[in-house]
Amino acid sequence: MNLDDFGMDTVTLAGTLHAKLGAMRAAGFSQVMLSARDIVGDPGGEASAFATMRSSGLRVTGFQVLRDFEGLSGHLHAYKIDIAKGMLEMCHAAGSKLLLACSSTSAHASQDPELLARDLRKLAMLAIPFNIRIAYEALSWGRSINQYPQAWEIIERADRANLGLALDSFHMLATGFSLDGLDYVSPEKIFLVQLADFMWQETRSPEERINTARHFRVFPGEGVHSDEVAELVRSLDRMGYRGDYSFEVFNDDYLQLPPPLVAERARRSVKWLTDHVSRRSLPLRLGGSKH
Amino acid sequence: MRIRERHPEPTNPLGMDGIEFIEFATSQPQALGNVLQMMGFAPVARHRSREVMLYRQGPMNLIVNAHPDALPGLSAPGSTPALSAFALRVRDSAQAHRHALDLGAWEMPTRASAMELNIPGIHGVGDSLIYFVDRYKDFSIYDVDFLPLPGADRHPPALAGLHYFGIVQSVYAERSRDWIDFYQNLLGFSVLPGGRYFGILPKGTLLESPCHKFYLQLIEPPPGSEDIVWEESLVRIGLGAPDVLAATKALEQRGVVFVDHGSVQPSEKGALTQVYLGGVNFELVVSHLQPAAK
Question: Which residues does residue B236 pair with via DSSP β-bridges, in sequence order?
């Protein structure tokens, strides 16, 4: 595991897309998780943003985020299908092969697992011609799906090759951290892992979780759940996950600091993680090499 | 003791009934027409409002589309002919279209002119389209949109019993599962058990139509081909023949050249033509599907 396995989310940095990508590149990162807002908010328009992306030399980890998609009916469903199509087209144009979809928070959405699975099947189908995979993530304040084992159940029920799981350490930590559910997950069906920590021990209410998630995340190694984050990465490594890790750190302080300074913190976080994970997994790897 | 294996019969929710036509797009329709005529197709009709020609051979309809204005989001025809669409015969085209859209297919924009048929379709692989046609029995889509060529036989017979057998589609590495999902769920295709192949190019994944009248073959890039440009597209038509060697001979007499080196040689199982015009070839496959000529 090394720096190439990690990327940053554009949401973590202030400034233009050009400045964000430049800071990531300068810090040694080779991949970026793009936010749709960075594309449509580019002063030169979408085409300019796509060109900036292509010339950056960075690989696109994925594109985010489709919200409140599943479980709707009638005109709400039709509306969200249109939104999903727009996101998929942008995702494709940005050179991304992965779209992140968060579990619905909508009070209008059905809680019937079969209806949720049906809509995710439809989303996965819309993504096939574009060669895009859908990574479905349990938002910790999602209405029906707010923990990753529930998201995995819906993914299994939907049973589509290009539909898999996105794990986000923040949401896992916020709802009572447990890795037991990973025993049931196939490593190749984990499409993305997003990493962040935060500064307090608990988030007691959904409102507190939302507030913390959107303003007070920090990089792994900077918060108070370092052991759990390292344990998560170690477990994923052990179970055979070889996909991407991305730092999704929403933090108001970071948004008023120069991007190179924040990107440097991200690079230090990679070092912290790889030190912790490699050190403890070394005996296992040595054991494995004898056979 | 005989054990009866239980394979569930695949369903055919759309009432699929074979291929109505296959379409090429090219900016050089004459050159492609020459290749098609060598392969036994004959021009029979011309589209009323666009530069589109209908070729026919026995039960096979083949359309050459040279109309320069592409539909939104699609490329205009290039000089290298490309397989750009196939049309499926279904019980009810509007219902089939609705069914596909409900499951997540992308709708294709319509471009029918006044008094022309609006044939519903969805986006397929790459720039290609999949149409749904329900008028193919006593009344055909060509009766409305096409004008017969004066003096042309409207139903030229098939050479050596040739008929549509299938279409080969290239897919990116590790993408077969996605496209299996696509064809299985939208159109009711089923995967043939591993090891069951036709023709002389036994590779990839074979999907059988729910009407058992044709096949799709998905081909991933071969190992060690990282340096070649590999796009996802419809790449080749498979033609069925009851006697491949007889069909090969008949086509050779018309000037068709078959690949004859290494493991790819004409045999009783199949044959592969050389590549014409930088991108067009045909595969012959031994087949007794033999749909009735119209």
Answer: B168
Residues of B in contact with A161 (CB under 8 A): 177-178, 180-181
A60-85 residue pLDDT tens: 999 999 999 999 999 999 999 999 99
Gap between the Cα atoms of B216 and A195, Å rounded: 42
In chain B, alpha helices (H): 29-38, 93-102, 141-145, 176-187, 244-253
B159-286 matches B19-148 in CATH topology: yes
Q: What ipTM does the predicted assembly reach? A: 0.90
Do residues A240 and A187 lie in contact, with contact meaning Cβ atoms separated by under 8 Å?
yes
| Sign of the alpha-carbon torsion through A178, A179, A180, A186 | positive
Residue B134 to residue B92: CA distance in whole angstroms: 5
Q: What mean pLDDT comes out for the span A22-33?
A: 98
Distance CA A36, CA A60 (A): 12
Cβ-based neighbours of A201, under 8 Å, separated by 6 or more: A224
A144 Cα to chain B: minimum distance (Å): 23
* Chain A residues in contact with B125 (beta carbon < 8 A): 129
What residues of B are in the A interface, CB distance below 8 Å?
Answer: 102-106, 123-125, 172, 175, 177-182, 185-186, 232
Numbers of helices and strands, H then E, in chain B: 5, 15
Q: Does domain B159-286 fall into CATH 3.10.180.10?
A: yes
Residues of B in contact with A126 (CB under 8 A): 104, 106
Q: Tell me the CATH class for A3-281.
A: alpha beta
Task: Give residue A96's Cα distance to chain centre.
Answer: 13
Handedness of CA A175, A179, A184, A185 (dihedral sign): positive
**Distances from the Cα of B285 to the Cα of B138, B156, B241, angstroms:** 30, 21, 6
Contact A131 B123 (CB under 8 A): no
CA A89 – CA A92 distance, rounded (Å)? 5
Confidence of residue A289 (pLDDT cuts 50, 70, 90): very low
Percent of chain A with pLDDT strictly greater than 90:
86
Starting at the earlier edge strand, list the strands of the sheet with B215-219.
Answer: B190-191, B205-208, B215-219, B163-170, B233-241, B282-286, B270-272
**Domain B19-148: assigned CATH number:** 3.10.180.10
Residue A182 burial class via C-beta count within 10 angstroms: exposed 0-12, middle 13-18, buried 19 and up: buried
B182/A125 Cβ within 8 A: yes
| DSSP secondary structure letters along A13-81 | S-S-HHHHHHHHHHTT--EEEEEHHHHHT-TTHHHHHHHHHHHT--EEEEEEEE-S-TT--HHHHHHHH
The identity of residue B124, as a single letter, is G
Look at residue B123 and give its three-state secondary structure: strand
Note if the pTM is more than 0.80. Answer: yes
Q: How far is CA B214 from CA A240, B11, B157, B167, in A?
A: 40, 15, 20, 8
Q: Where are the domains of chain B?
A: 19-148, 159-286
Query: Domain segments of chain A: what residues?
Result: 3-281
- The string of DSSP codes covering A109-162 is S---HHHHHHHHHHHHHHHGGGT-EEEEE--TT-SS--SHHHHHHHHHHH--TT
Q: What is the pLDDT of residue B116?
A: 66
pLDDT band at A278 (very low <50, low <70, confident <90, very high): confident
**In A, which residues are within 8 Å of B124 by CB distance?**
129
Strand (E) or helix (H) holding A287: helix A259-289
